[in-house]
Each structure stands twice: as structure tokens, then as C-alpha cells.
Amino acid sequence: MYYSKNQIQVNIKYSMAVLGIFTGQGFTKQMYEDLKREVDWETNRPAGMILHAAAVDKSGNIQVADIWESEQDFTNYFNSKLKAGFEKINAPMPKGEFYEVHNINAHQGIDSYKFK
């Protein structure tokens, strides 16, 4: 939504975004960093990716939460880039599931959580 003193403009997008939750059993922080370098999603943003967040659990495995414009956008990216990246670095494929997004809130300050 855009607001100015004289008008409010609302842009409505009718497609349903999806939340992907991925668990990387045996997929370590180092493997994640290697994959990130290999695929380079930070500077070459994939079509349809809205948000990507990764964390390391107590066992040392990567946990990922992504928001995509559609599950098909993720599938296209996986087939064209990610799958080859996983194979090249010899990392196990994560297990994941998609859910239709009900609500997204991105608050002021979100950019301070980006890591370089």
C-alpha cells in the first residue's frame, strides 16, 4: 500500500503466495554456505522468491523457511539451479512442505537481519 497526503493507492495481487518449510537432515551450516556461493541466490534473486530465512538447529542441521509467489516458482528454481547445486556440493536433499500463506507481516527493521 502506498500513502501520501492526497491519496491511498492499494495494489492487490490475486495469486496465492506459499510458505515452504525445509528440514536438512545432515545438511550442515558449511554445506549451506557452499550451496549459497554455488547457486548465488542473494545477488541473482530467483523469480518468485519473496523471502528466505535459514537457521541451524541444536543438531547442526539447517532449517529453512521460504516464501514464494507460487510453488511452481520454487519448483522451476529447484529444477533449474538448486538441484545441480546440491549435487555439486554432495549435500543431502532437504525434506519440505508447502502451505498457502494466510498472512505476512514484514516490519520496519527487517533489513537489519540480512547477513552479507
Describe the structure.
- The protein has helices spanning 29-39, 71-89, and strands at 2-3, 8-9, 18-24, 49-56, 62-68, 95-100.
- With 116 residues, it is an alpha+beta fold.
- It has a domain at 22-102: Alpha-Beta Plaits.
- The strands form two sheets. A four-stranded antiparallel sheet has the order 4-5-3-6.
- The longest helix is centred in the C-terminal third of the chain and has 19 residues, at 71-89.
- The radius of gyration is 16 Å and the shape is globular.
- The protein starts with a strand and ends in a 16-residue tail after the last strand.
Kindly summarize this structure in a few lines.
With 116 residues, the chain is of the alpha+beta class. Helix content is 26%, strand content 28%. The protein has a four-stranded antiparallel β-sheet. Strands 1-2 form a two-stranded antiparallel sheet.
List keywords for this structure.
6 strands, two-stranded antiparallel sheet, 4-stranded antiparallel sheet, Alpha-Beta Plaits, 116 residues, single chain, 28% strand, 2 helices
Lay out the secondary structure.
Blueprint: E1 2-3, E2 8-9, E3 18-24, H1 29-39, E4 49-56, E5 62-68, H2 71-89, E6 95-100
Antiparallel strand pairs: 1-2, 3-5, 3-6, 4-5
Helix pairs in contact: 1-2
Q: Terminal Cα separation, in Å?
A: 29 Å
The percentage helix is 25-40%
Indicate the radius of gyration in whole angstroms.
16 Å
Shape: globular
Name of the CATH architecture of the domain at 22-102? 2-Layer Sandwich
Biggest β-sheet, characterized?
4 strands, antiparallel
Give the strand content.
25-35%
Q: SS-based structural class?
A: alpha+beta
Assembly type of the shown chains? single chain
CATH topology of the domain at 22-102: Alpha-Beta Plaits
Order of helices and strands: EEEHEEHE
| Low-confidence regions | 1-14
The neighbouring-strand order within the major sheet is 4-5-3-6
